[in-house]
Design a protein that fits this description.
With 177 residues, the chain is an alpha+beta fold. Helix content is 23%, strand content 34%. A seven-stranded mixed β-sheet has the order 2-3-1-5-4-6-7, with helices on one face. The two termini are 28 Å apart.
Length: 177
């Protein structure tokens, strides 16, 4: 059996608390633990780390990193669809991350280590403004090598029905997290 691939998730919600239900660390982790539970080759857990919230372990022979990112984006998108008082006509869930290529920043077992995916789960009404604000395109254009992950779920309102439009982009680049 192949060693599991490790993906750590953080959360960056730029939506106002009156637009969606706020998610604390435990709530955020529960989104993925419950939604991904039916996938036997994927395990999720809440971790104790100042930045990372969720550890996702998956069998790379059964799921690619892009597959897992898509499932994560769908999980949070579905949670937001079920929100009892959504006050947004649309918003986007993006997963932005890369494979760590530099030494771990700490010795904690919850630290992101070389070869692991560090992924920021972003909720925003303006993905272009968010990406421009973090200088994403310039940052990824300057580094060459391994993998970058950009996964997006756009929530849109069509004739009174909410739906999500998935978008996946996996390009070859090294991201030094």
């Amino acid at each position: 059996m192949t060693a599991p691939t490790r993906m750590l998730l953080s959360h960056n919600c730029t939506l106002a608390d009156d637009q969606v239900s706020p998610l604390n660390r435990a709530d955020f982790a529960h989104v993925f633990m419950s939604a991904l539970k039916p996938h036997q080759a994927i395990r999720c857990s809440l971790i104790d780390n100042p930045h990372w919230i969720v550890e996702v372990l998956f069998d790379p022979q059964q799921h690619s990193s892009t597959d897992v990112a898509m499932l994560c984006a769908q999980s949070l998108s579905s949670r937001r669809l079920a929100d009892p008082y959504p006050k947004l006509d649309n918003h986007t869930v993006m997963l932005l991350g890369g494979i760590k290529t530099t030494p771990a920043l700490g010795s904690s077992p919850t630290s992101l280590r070389p070869g692991e995916w560090g992924v920021d789960v972003v909720e925003t009404v303006s993905p272009q403004e968010f990406l421009a604000g973090i200088n994403w395109e310039t940052a990824i254009a300057m580094i060459k090598g391994l993998s970058i992950l950009k996964e997006k779920q756009k929530k849109t309102l069509y004739q009174g029905h909410l739906s999500f439009c998935p978008y996946v982009e996996l390009t070859l680049t090294t991201l030094c997290l």
